[in-house]
Design goal:
Layout (H helix, E strand, L loop, with lengths): L18 E6 L3 H12 L4 E4 L16 E2 L7 H21 L4 E11 L3 H10 L2 E2 L2 H6 L16 E12 L1 H14 L3 E3 L4 E6 L8 E5 L4 E9 L5 H5 L9 E12 L15 E4 L5 E4 L7 E6 L16 H15 L4 E2 L6 E9 L6 E4 L6 E5 L9 H14 L3 H5 L22
Parallel strand pairs: 1-2, 1-10, 2-7, 4-12, 10-18
Antiparallel strand pairs: 3-6, 4-6, 5-6, 8-9, 9-10, 11-14, 11-15, 11-16, 12-13, 13-14, 17-18
Helix pairs in contact: 1-5, 1-8, 2-5, 2-8
This protein binds flavin-adenine dinucleotide (FAD).
Flavin-adenine dinucleotide binds next to helix 1, strand 3, strand 11 and strand 16.
Cofactor: FAD
GO molecular function: flavin adenine dinucleotide binding; oxidoreductase activity
Keywords: FAD, Flavoprotein, Oxidoreductase
Length: 416
């Protein structure tokens, strides 16, 4: 394995760990990490508690939005890095998982985060009349208050990621580079192996199996706080039950709102905070959903919690904003449950655990991590292998923003 301080170099008389990097959790983050580490020549084991590509976590389903429009420069940098890595992975796999589209941001001009997101990417402002003319008049927003109190801006950098297909792609690419993938293997504990035994970590699975690795990366999504509680780490990550909702496109408008016709992904910063993607994966349906949902225990889900309220809020938005193109009255045609793992400041957690450099955690992706998966995976793999991330440094990403310590004595972390 390349890299200064690379683990798994056996010392005389000591047993070498079986793997250089053990990745726990095979959602998008773990799968990308496994691929990035295996691409470095590391011997990688990827462990997943449930069946591969299961629908119980955060990375399953038909689509995720990718957009550059971010208020915080750190995410703009990360999404730009991720775009290069998505393209590289697609080239390696020989098929596509990302359908590029424009992206439309809209909301009250008074929203500081919307203004910053627009300014950061130099998006083109579209006035309300122009908006009504574009895309066959699909957005018929009636703006509350004076017209100039509202802002809409268009950028070229949206897109739809085919979620489950993308996770499967990174798993296949990792296996092709020699990674071992084991599903239906629940990790119940991660211990440091004693130095006399060669050091590294021992990853214990339910049923008594144990795996030895030089380094371990924990990417267990909504289960992070539970699993890492045993390290005395108090991760302030709150899982929320959230929904992907698909609505029927009104007859005759199917082509207008399709990706092939150039319809954009969109985010509305008003109340409710709605986002949507062009009709693509389910012809005749369009995905329009809303951030947020009730807190949930990933091991004891109430699959219907809060659904009626979220559905009502999105339906009301559709009736106001896209009344001629989307049928809200009939309710959503398809609903898929999902979990968002929220941190108090909506910033990710990417850090070392327990005072050493052998256990790395990636968690708390706060409902906006999928698009960044390949960048996160590369950074986590480098942290595990090298003890730091050159890729992050080259991209101008200050990993200090993602440290767990930001919450010490400051429950809101980066949000202050
Ligand atoms: C409704 C919804 C819409 C979203 N929309 C977008 C979007 O448009 N754009 C975007 O960028 N992001 C979006 N996101 C966020 C994005 O999907 C997540 O940030 C991302 O999928 C998180 O991936 P993960 O790998 O951290 O978690 P997961 O996908 O949950 O993966 C964690 C894995 O760890 C496994 N695991 C847990 N415990 C153990 C254990 N003890 N042993 C072994 N394995 C274990 C789990 O089974 C799971 O497979 C959305 C999320 C939701 C819910």
């Amino acid at each position: 394995m390349a890299g200064a301080g690379a683990p798994a170099v056996p010392q005389a008389g000591r047993p070498a760990p079986n793997f250089d990097v053990i990745v726990v959790g095979a959602g998008i983050m773990g799968s990308c990490t496994a691929h990035a580490a295996a691409s470095r020549g590391a011997r990688v084991l990827l462990l997943e508690r449930f069946d591969l590509l299961h629908p119980l976590g955060s990375s399953h389903g038909d689509s995720r939005i990718i957009r550059d429009a971010y208020a915080q420069p750190r995410y703009l940098r990360m999404v730009r890095l991720a775009r290069c890595l998505w393209a590289a992975a697609e080239a390696e796999a020989g098929y596509r998982v990302l359908t590029p589209t424009p992206h439309l941001s809209m909301g009250p001009r008074s929203s500081a985060s919307l203004a910053a997101a627009i300014a950061n990417i130099g998006a083109e402002e579209v006035d309300v009349d122009d908006l009504h003319r574009r895309w066959g008049g699909a957005f018929a927003l009636t703006v509350p208050g004076p017209v100039d109190a509202w802002v809409t801006a268009l950028s070229d950098h949206g897109g739809v990621l085919s979620a489950t297909k993308a996770v499967a792609m990174f798993q296949s690419l990792a296996v092709a580079k020699g990674a071992v993938v084991r599903d239906n293997t629940e990790v119940v504990g991660i211990d440091r192996a004693p130095e006399p035994d060669g050091g590294g970590v021992v990853v214990r699975a339910a049923g008594g199996e144990a795996f030895r690795g030089a380094r371990c990366v924990v990417t267990v999504g909504a289960w992070a706080a539970k699993l890492l509680g045993s390290w005395g780490v108090d991760l302030p990550i709150r899982p929320l039950h959230t929904l992907h909702l698909y609505w029927r496109v009104k007859p005759g408008q199917e082509q207008t709102v399709s990706a092939s016709a150039g319809f954009p992904t969109f985010s509305s910063y008003g109340d409710p905070p709605v986002y949507g993607a062009p009709s693509l994966e389910l012809p005749g349906l369009i995905k329009i959903s809303c951030d947020g949902g009730p807190p949930c225990d990933p091991d004891a889900r109430d699959w219907l919690a809060g659904d009626a309220e979220v559905t009502h809020r999105v339906a009301r938005w559709i009736q106001e904003a896209m009344p001629d193109h989307v049928d809200a009255a009939g309710g959503p045609v398809v609903r898929q449950s999902c979990i968002c793992s929220m941190t108090p400041d909506a910033d990710f957690v990417m850090d070392f655990l327990g005072g050493g450099r052998d256990v790395v955690v990636g968690a708390g992706f706060s409902g906006h991590g999928f698009k960044m998966g390949p960048a996160v995976g590369k950074i986590l793999a480098e942290m595990a292998i090298d003890g730091g991330s050159e890729t992050a440094a080259e991209a101008g990403l200050d990993l200090g923003f993602f440290r767990i310590g930001r919450f010490d004595g400051n429950p809101m972390g980066n949000a202050k």
